[in-house]
Amino acid sequence: MTLCLYECLRAVGLQHHYARFTSVGVCRTAHISVLTMEDYPLLGIHTMEDRTRLFQLVQFVKTLDLEGLGYDDDDDYHYSHGGRVEGSTIVDSSFCHDSDSIFNDEDGNGAAVNNIIASTFARPSHVRRRLDFSNETSDHHQRLSHPVVHVNMRYARYEESIRKKGSATSVQHQYRPKPKPANVTSNTFNHKPLGHKDRKRTTRKKTLYTEMDTDGCMCKPTPVYEAKRTAGYNYGLPMSTPPAQCKQARQAEEQRIKVCVRKRPLTCTESRQREADVVTTPGGECVIVHEVKEAVDLSQYILQHKFYFDQVFGEKSSNEEVYHQTAYPLVQHMLKGGKVTCFAYGQTGAGKTHTMLGSPAIPGLYALAVQDIFAHLSATHSYQLVFVSFFEIYCGQLYDLLDHRKRLFAREDGQKVVHISGLRDVRVDSVSSLLEVKQGRRTNSSTSTPNKVFEVWSVMTQVISQGTAERTQGMSGVNPLSSRSHALLQIQLRDSNQQIAGRMWFVDLAGSERASDAKEPDRQSRMEGAEINQSLLALKECIRSLDQEQSHTPFRQSKLTQVLKDSFVGDSMTCMIANISPGHTATEHTLNTLRYADRVKELKRQGGLRGRRRNRGKTAASPNQNLFSSTTGSTVSSRGKSPPKKPKLTRQSDSFGPTTPTTRSPVRSAFLCSTPKNTKCGEEANARRRGEIRLEHISPVRGWLRTGDKRHQRNEADELGGGRTGNDSLKTMERQSVSQQSPRAVLESGHQQSPRAVLVSGQPKDKRVWKVFLKIF
Ligand SMILES: Nc1ncnc2c1ncn2[C@@H]1O[C@H](COP(=O)(O)OP(=O)(O)OP(=O)(O)O)[C@@H](O)[C@H]1O
């Protein structure tokens, strides 16, 4: 039993168009696969329903390996000339007279088709044309003599339209990617006319690539275009620039921020699923993503996205190689007393943990860094001590991974230095390693043997394995053991006075993918995803803010940036390793990761950080002072750009209701308690401040009436963050006094909202307003 055109059309309920199809030259099932939407009217497909059906059929036929299934070119031919297909009854009540004409045609010479064309489809001559499948050898078409439309030229048409649009630059057809694997489910069609083919679908899908590659009829060379990015997408910064063009800038920057990309190989699972590798890493500084796209006419084309970074590691790079290019310079800087940070960023399953932690057989950056630190200390006979702490940030909370997930709190002191209270520091005292080194058997990492590396690894794992086991993990759509938290490993060097003599952060960030990618997106995983995204956004905002020389850097937007404050100020060095997956199903995430990294790289080339540091150096001596000035100073951006927008945490309305015009509070902020006490003190305060207080809106939270004054919010945040200023007592007085006003007094003071409103604050705003008014008047 073979596949024929009529069966296909009947499967989607388009069998009544069969004659029309054959009349214009669509006589075989294979012809369907090359139909485009432009051909639909020619085939008599006008209604949206029919268009959808035909579209589905075209998609389905495209996924079929017709030759592999024993597709016989003549089948449709015989079919259309009255041949009765083995095992199937083609008589269909909906097929009207056309079918009779066709199937009762005994001579099989195409007379029926010609009759139909002549009688049923008597159309104007410009419509009466037939589609040409020029690659066919059958003489079937030679019997028809209508004008020809070249539908197989759709690739050329598309290329032409792209050129006209100027949205992409055409390049040579040099890259011929494997087409996307077919993703056909058994319920694609309800009627199951092709049921006898079902058992072959699996093999059909698997052989799709090769068949289409070798079959010139089925697969035209896929056009390749180079993505031409516009200024809007990258915040107006120049796009990824080749290294040659920015050599000077790089030298000037002295690699304070280094952005690298690491591509991992396809995993066994991905190979089994026949995922295509869409990432290439030509040279050591360029990475190209070949994105398979589909045009509106359903033709496929390739869009190449090219990025340049300080270093690009291909799938064959080892952890040691990555370490020497990324973390090793940071270790050297730390040993000189600097503060350094190494981020691993990327989608879940992209290889962040593999890079950072590795395994006993393949130690990651943690172990290699500690090994070098010990090697240095022993070589210089230093008495500095190495302390390690390890904690995670999960859903905005800090948990100590070395202390049974004890809850931690990040607080700022009066000097604006962030401390993590309760964090356990473990002194790493690799006696055996150090002894070995002191005996001259170890000098540095480059001369160490794998056994020695393994030894340091085992020392580190005594500390880290406990923490890693405690880390929050979950199942994502990509990785069954996906990290759902940011893991931060801190390595500190301390002198004999316990003063910090160098600090290194290793940050294994949580997967950067969207929350919806979780395999079973329940509430918890969505919350996790939202939190992860928010902290990554905050990280980006901090970097962006530094780049734009903003007077305020929003460290406090997330715990991650708050904890990593040191990484953004002073004489720090940072390295970001963007990990990417090579599979075509991860293309979108790969591009997102690369764009994020590209953004970080481009801003450093703009000299944003450097310029900022320079400015800071003029006004302040220490990083802490710099930070202070950056957060409280009134410096306006020299570029005149607007400050970054903070994500809105709560919705604030400017108007409370149609009858309650609101006014902004003056600089002095005030609270109003929902249940004021009529004390004398309160009345006095009320009388004094009656003319000053302007309420903006009522917050249902804890019954406070709040003002929208930013300074007030900042003061409040300071208090929450643990910092207290000299005005604290004054503010407390203010709060007390204002909170004790009577409702009547508030009304008299010109405000149209009553504290009574707070009592009904759980209701919609308009209702609340009306209740207040009813109560009063
Ligand atoms: N460079 C590499 N070479 C070989 N295998 C790798 C490489 N990078 C990652 N892998 C493998 O890919 C899988 C996923 O890697 P890993 O767990 O490091 O991802 P991840 O980015 O940390 O994911 P998540 O964010 O979900 O924790 C692991 O099985 C790991 O062994």
From TrEMBL:
Subcellular location: Cytoplasm, Cytoskeleton
Regions of compositional bias (Low complexity) in chain numbering: 629-638
Database matches in PROSITE patterns: KINESIN_MOTOR_1, KINESIN_MOTOR_2
Matches recorded under Gene3D superfamilies: Kinesin motor domain
Keyword Membrane found: no
Single Gene Ontology MF annotation: ATP binding
SUPFAM superfamilies hit by this protein: P-loop containing nucleoside triphosphate hydrolases, SAM/Pointed domain
Protein's UniProt name: Kinesin-like protein
